[in-house]
Amino acid sequence: MALAIRYKKLVLHALIIAGVVTMLYPVLWMLSTSLKPSDMMFTDYSLWPKKITFDHYINGWKGISRITFTTFYMNSLVLVFTAIIGNIVSCSLAAYAFGRLEFKGKKLMFSLMLITMMIPLHVLVIPQYIMFNKLDWMNTILPIVVPKFFATEGFFVFLTIQFIRSLPRELDQAATVDGCGPIRIYTKVILPLIVPAIVTTTIFTFIWTWNDFFSQLLYLTGQEKLTVTLALRMFLDAMGDSALGSLFAMSFLSIVPVFLMFLFFQRFIVEGIATSGIK
Amino acid sequence: MRTEAARRRRESLIPYLFLAPWLIGVLAFSAVPIFTSLYLSFTNYNFIGTPDWIGLRNYITMFTDDPQYLQSLKVTLMYVFVAVPLELAFALGLALLLNRGIGGLGIYRSLYYIPSLIGGSVAIAILWRQVFGAEGIVNKTLGIFGIDMPSWIGTPSHAVWALILLKVWQFGSPMIIFLAGLKQIPNDFYEASSLDGAGRWKQFTHITVPMLTPIILFNAIMQMISAFQAFTPAYVISDGTGGPVNSTLFYTLYLYQNGFGNFQMGYASSMAWVLFIIIGIFTWLAFKSSNKWVHYDN
């Protein structure tokens, strides 16, 4: 009996692992291809390259028309970090008001926030594009990052509200007794306690902004302004599939930051998805 | 007394101080654009001149005089209603398998989540072009079994399947939500039913599935909404054309071509509104049908 159960478990593990390997095979193939010399790419299909070369990484990094991936990575990082700061500041402010303060029109505004979360981007994007063009913000990161300073990502406001609501009220009451107003309560009591929500906001903003393609495609057009995502597409356009090694090398490299975020902050990501249902 | 009243008044304004960024954001980036977009949808506007009011003409053209539009609608509906059920089936299946207490849940869950993490990126779309190319690993694998296939990406009848599989591949995130839901089912239910002599299958159909239905509904709606708006993979895989022969012309891709390729911004706005309405209708239908199949315990 015990043996039968252990045997069954083993079969289950084998099944699950086979699933993992099948799922991740394409990504591993990309990595392995990017490390193979060009002449072996289509002859040697094994995952373990018989000969390893970093040429594709060196050549790929040189980028397109003399702009290297150093520029593209810098652009992406500036974009991502500005977006993160915007989201953290604006979403925590709004979440504190919704989660703790009393004011006229609160219910109405809360429903308004939930409604804005459901409007598809495509309904808003054309007027926004016209507006940003009038403001002369084209080919800058402003159309992408400025809205983030105005709490436009309702998901994060919602997530932080839920988190603030779970904090014991006694803490703010004690601070009020000590003579703190809402502003001091926010900075001294709430902010330090909502660090987990802030971390979740940071990680998801990082991953989504890093991977985002649509907004970047719309607003960033100059070659020196391209982000990693846009550079990859440009690379594909310029070289087609002929420089497959470099294309794969740069593509693989572009998902490494996301991997690293995931590796270090797994717990926050899994809890974030499980509690709020976000992507 | 007067200073006390003034202080109160000042304090009653403080909440709005915290809300100010959000309020401005809603106005400037949601409210104004949504009404502008509605207005533009009734106009002919090419981005340079002034919008020309043409009433319902955009909406009529769409359904009567634009075969490409109808094609994009067809491709998208097929994508959504094939990919999402398949994705959810895999998510649920794996969640059930992982939930059997065999250990290693944390690591397996993370590994299965990786595709969801990167699936929407340009890098993966580039990879997918190769994986489903003529000499890609999919065809190489099928070749072992003697199945000879053309390039999926280059064949009109196959291209959309590469995109469907890309969506299904990302079943990790609904799987995590299912796992969280499975944990919520009280163990007593299973114990009580075991005492009553219920077998595994009976427990599955009478306890697990009914208890999970609210989460199935939630996942189905969320995945459907995101699938309707899929853009990047179709754009990258077809070089922005929606080809071959419009077989991967997703709704949002055609909208993009109209709005930002041809600068037919009035027409693109009306397309966006129809998409909004379609998503709204399907979401409403899902909720409406839910009292027939979703189990809510009060």
From TrEMBL, chain A:
Q: Which InterPro entries match?
A: MetI-like, MetI-like_sf
Question: Where is the protein found, in the record's own terms?
Answer: Cell membrane
Indicate the segments forming the ABC transmembrane type-1 domain, all copies: 73-265
* Topological type in the membrane: Multi-pass membrane protein
Question: For this UniProt entry, which segments traverse the membrane?
Answer: 12-31, 72-98, 110-132, 144-164, 185-210, 243-265
Alphabetized, the UniProt keywords read: Cell membrane, Membrane, Transmembrane, Transmembrane helix, Transport
GO CC list: plasma membrane
Question: Organism's domain of life?
Answer: Bacteria
Does Cell division appear among the keywords? no
A biological process term (GO) from this entry: transmembrane transport
Q: Give the primary localization class.
A: membrane
Family in the record: Belongs to the binding-protein-dependent transport system permease family.
- Alphabetized PANTHER family for the sequence: ABC TRANSPORTER PERMEASE PROTEIN MG189-RELATED-RELATED, ABC TRANSPORTER PERMEASE PROTEIN YESQ-RELATED
Q: What is this protein called?
A: Carbohydrate ABC transporter permease
TrEMBL record, chain B:
User: Which SUPFAM superfamilies does this entry report, sorted A to Z?
Assistant: MalF N-terminal region-like (SSF160964), MetI-like (SSF161098)
Residue stretches making up the ABC transmembrane type-1 domain? 73-286
Gene3D superfamilies in the cross-refs: MetI-like
Gene Ontology CC: plasma membrane
Q: Which ranges does the record mark as transmembrane?
A: 12-35, 77-98, 110-128, 159-182, 265-287
Question: Among its keywords, does the record have Isomerase?
Answer: no
For this protein, the record's CDD domains field holds: TM_PBP2 (cd06261)
Q: Which UniProt keywords apply?
A: Cell membrane, Membrane, Transmembrane, Transmembrane helix, Transport
Q: Which InterPro entries match?
A: ABC_transporter_permease, MetI-like, MetI-like_sf
Kindly list the places in or outside the cell where this protein is found, as annotated in its UniProt entry.
Cell membrane
Which membrane topology describes this protein? Multi-pass membrane protein
Say which domain of life the source belongs to. Answer: Bacteria
Q: Which GO terms describe its biological process?
A: transmembrane transport
The UniProt family comment states: Belongs to the binding-protein-dependent transport system permease family.
**Protein name per Swiss-Prot or TrEMBL:** Sugar ABC transporter permease
